[in-house]
Amino acid sequence: DTGVSQNPRHKITKRGQNVTFRCDPISEHNRLYWYRQTLGQGPEFLTYFQNEAQLEKSRLLSDRFSAERPKGSFSTLEIQRTEQGDSAMYLCASSQRYNEQFFGPGTRLTVL
Amino acid sequence: SQELEQSPQSLIVQEGKNLTINCTSSKTLYGLYWYKQKYGEGLIFLMMLQKGGEEKSHEKITAKLDEKKQQSSLHITASQPSHAGIYLCGADIGTNAGKSTFGDGTTLTVKP
Question: pLDDT tens digits for A55-72?
Fold first, then answer.
């Protein structure tokens, strides 16, 4: 257990539905990251926050994806109008600035 | 990721044997991280290397950073079945923004 938690651990949804994932970072960490990982690939960067500010967003993140980190604590990642190509493991990580990232266990999304 | 190339892609070794995994960057590295992942789970932080020539060890795992070659190696001595998993290198590439790019991983199998 790294201290980063993610919920739910698994989500099965039908194409076109909206889904929301939650990440609770290690409390003293000011940076929070979201990644997407598919089978046989390394994690792909999606976005990151420093405190409550979203500092960077990958071009991979279409308009259907939105992330928030209100009050600089937990974060949510929402995917609207899910597509089968969204099926992946969504990983959250947290860090203190420029230090190593600690990852949560991930949320596995399956879009039918 | 094409920016971080890992080799080999997979490795099968007999218990007790030594092995090396390499990670090569196509761009300047600002910090290099090694993680281990079990299938379907999050990443577990192993080591972080920040300076050229730096070498770190933890139990039977040693990592080195060759900044000039933009390359890192992970060496496991006297491998055990508990070492089995996917080893991923991650790095802050080309910019010191703190987001990480990951290699696609090396899958290690240790035969008892």
Answer: 888 887 889 999 999 988
- Please name the residue of chain B whose CA is at the shortest distance from the CA of residue A108: B40
End-to-end, the C-alpha distance of chain A in Å comes to 30
Give the number of C-alpha atoms closer than 13 A to the C-alpha of residue A73, restricted to the C-beta side. Answer: 2
Residues in B touching A11 (Cβ below 8 Å):
none
| DSSP code at position B33 | E
d(CA B40, CA B24): 25
Question: Among candidates A34, A105, A43, A99, which has minimal Cα distance to A68?
Answer: A34
Q: What percent of chain A has pLDDT over 70?
A: 99
CA atoms within 13 A on the CB side of B18: 8
8 Å CB contact of A101 and B100: yes
Tokens of A75: 């974060």
A38 to chain B, minimum CA–CA distance in Å? 10
| pLDDT value of position B86 | 97
CB-CB under 8 Å, B98 with A105: no
Whether the predicted pLDDT of B98 surpasses 70: no
The answer to whether A54 touches A67, Cβ cutoff 8 Å, is yes
